[in-house]
Design goal:
Order of helices and strands: HEHEHEEHEEEEEEHHEEH
Shape: globular
Strand content: 25-35%
Organism: Filimonas zeae
Radius of gyration: 19 Å
Protein name: Nucleotidyltransferase
CATH topology: Spore Coat Polysaccharide Biosynthesis Protein SpsA, Chain A
Distance between the termini: 24 Å
Number of strands: 12
Helix content: 25-40%
Structural class: alpha+beta
CATH superfamily: Spore Coat Polysaccharide Biosynthesis Protein SpsA, Chain A
Length: about 280
């Protein structure tokens, strides 16, 4: 399980580094969105490390959360995606917040910039997405799926184009979509699911989730995704999403062969002094 696998020299998970960077940036609370049946094991791993360092809370995403009286098809096995996951924060998060993937390493600069935005600019009509340079998000072990951001003159997000197969080809970065092949600049801005929202985004997730279920309840693999809700926020005229660019290098375990690369990258950052050898001691 990537979320609890050890990558750091002191046995740290990738999530440990995100929480450590968040605390250094100024964040005061972390909310874990997890399966309820995993809660006790999860708490046993993280509570001893985080006690006295940051406030913790837990919410549980399940197949039936916020589904109401709709009947979920028997063949549906997994919950409904990242949009439903954020919706599960309702009642627990009532202030501006950042949301990340638990198994992605985002880098300290991303958290500093996100915290600054949340403190000084975020409101019900202005959100943000942390954007990475595409070249800093690739795997050496195969193609990746990336959401390419389109921006306006004020560096505001206008939309996301999903490319499901992006990879290096010689000294170029290319994407394939069916029979079509194109080239992408190394500095292309991409979203890695690091967003900054006002709490009203949770209400928007709730209203759109009902519409999604009514249209997709019988589709066993349909997913209600957070970027879709963010896109609707823009397209429906609710407000704007600023694009905050970071030069940090993202890394994660897309393929099992990525794990040694992630460990080596963390070791290099520890050696450079960016992180202590043991985060929590």
């Amino acid at each position: 399980m990537k979320q609890t696998e050890s990558f750091g020299p002191g046995g740290e998970t990738i999530m440990d580094y995100s929480i450590y960077d968040a605390i250094r940036a100024g964040f005061k609370k972390v909310v874990f969105i997890i399966r309820e049946d995993f809660a006790e094991n999860f708490k046993a791993i993280f509570e001893p490390k985080l006690k006295g360092k940051i406030e913790t809370a837990y919410v549980f995403q399940s197949l039936t959360a916020f589904v109401g009286d709709r009947k979920v098809p028997a063949e549906r096995a997994k919950p409904w995606g990242t949009g439903q996951a954020v919706l599960c924060l309702k009642g627990t998060v009532n202030e501006p917040f950042a949301v990340i993937n638990a198994d992605d390493f985002y880098g300290a600069d991303a958290f500093v910039k996100a915290y600054d935005f949340l403190q000084n600019k975020c409101n019900a009509k202005e959100y943000a997405v942390v954007a990475y340079h595409l070249v800093n998000t690739l795997s050496e072990n195969g193609s990746v799926s990336r959401g390419v951001l389109s921006t306006g003159s004020n560096n505001e997000m206008q939309g996301v184009t999903e490319h499901t197969k992006v990879f290096r080809e010689g000294d170029k970065i290319v994407f394939e979509e069916g029979d079509r092949k194109g080239e992408l600049s190394s500095n292309t801005q991409v979203s890695m699911n690091f967003f900054c929202f006002d709490a009203n985004f949770i209400d928007l997730c709730e209203s759109l989730f009902g519409q999604f279920l009514d249209a997709n309840l019988d589709s066993p693999k349909a997913e209600f995704l957070m970027p879709y809700v963010a896109d609707r926020f823009i397209k429906d005229g609710h407000g704007v999403i600023d694009v905050i660019t970071t030069d940090a290098k993202w890394f994660g375990v897309t393929y099992k062969e990525d794990a040694p690369v992630v460990k080596a990258s963390i070791d290099a950052q520890v050696k450079s002094g960016a992180y202590p050898p043991s985060l929590w001691s």
